[in-house]
Design goal:
The structure holds two protein chains of two kinds. Chain A is mainly α. Chain A is about 70% helix and about 0% strand. The relative contact order of chain A is 0.06. The chains are: A mainly alpha, B mainly alpha. Chains A and B meet through helix 1, helix 2, helix 3, helix 4 and helix 5 of A and helix 1, helix 2 and helix 3 of B.
């Protein structure tokens, strides 16, 4: 047991418990708060994998923008201050069966493959610089990068259009 | 060092929990939260394979960055849709939005 493994196990337990609460708690505001814990756990995994830029981007983009946006929408779309009654539909046992079967299938698939126990090489010191150059170089990912920016622009305009209040005279 | 299959197990469990949330929840925002859990599981998987298989290349990181951008766009449009739906139905419960159900 190394320190890394202990950190990994603690993070895994916290992340999975928080994810479980996200999908089971009846109170939507609590679900959003548990979602923030889960996203933070994912950021810890990225840091353990030495994807430093992605760990920071996870905190800034997911926790700072997406989770807070969800919190706003939860508060804008409530009929009462408290959610009453069960928040899961009557199909939830089937959902549990499908999710458990899916998990079992993934575990079975993982057993079949020969997976490495340790990485082949170290992450280079300038991996963030490499990523930045790959995203704008014509030999790298400049086309997906530009498509993603057009997608974000379209999502921005679409979101404003959809949420626009039309005043009918 | 942490074996690769630990990461795969955690992300599989996270994906299954997200799938359960998408299939079982009534509130549309909660369904979107399940989708977010699944996207995060996929990203953990991508970065784990990047770290263990090809850490000297930026391909895995670039893939994860694109997943981030798509997730942000999806959440923005989804939440705007829920606000529009809420204006029309005064509810975002998925079983009450049944205008097209015959």
């Amino acid at each position: 047991m190394t320190v890394m493994q202990i950190v990994f196990l603690i993070t895994a337990v916290v992340t999975l418990f928080a994810a479980f609460r996200v999908v089971t708690t009846p109170n939507m505001v609590h679900a959003a708060l548990w979602l923030i814990v889960t996203l933070f756990g994912a950021a810890v995994f990225y840091a353990l994998l030495q994807a430093n830029f992605l760990a920071v981007a996870q905190v800034v983009v997911y926790i700072g923008a997406i989770a807070i946006l969800m919190m706003f929408v939860i508060m804008l779309t409530r009929r009462e201050m408290r959610d009453r009654g069960p928040q899961t539909g009557k199909q939830w046992p089937w959902a549990a069966v499908i999710a458990a079967a899916f998990f079992g299938g993934l575990v079975w698939l993982g057993q079949q493959a020969a997976l490495p126990a340790a990485p082949k090489a170290d992450v280079p010191k300038d991996s963030i610089a490499q990523l930045g150059q790959a995203l704008v170089s014509p030999n790298g990912f400049v086309i997906p990068f530009e498509v993603a920016s057009v997608l974000l622009l379209a999502a921005l305009i679409g979101a404003v259009y959809l949420a626009w209040t039309r005043h009918q005279s | 060092m942490i074996p690769l299959n630990w990461y795969l197990l955690v992300s599989a469990a996270l994906f299954a929990l997200g799938l359960f949330g998408v299939l079982s929840r009534k509130n549309a925002v909660a369904i979107l939260m399940g989708v977010e859990l699944m996207l995060n599981a996929v990203n953990i998987n991508l970065l784990a394979f990047w770290r263990y298989r090809a850490p000297t290349e930026a391909t895995g990181l670039a893939f994860a960055v694109i997943v981030f951008a798509v997730a942000a766009a999806e959440v923005a449009v989804g939440l705007a849709l829920f606000i529009a739906v809420y204006r029309r139905f005064k509810s975002v419960a998925a079983d009450e939005i049944n205008l097209l159900k015959w």
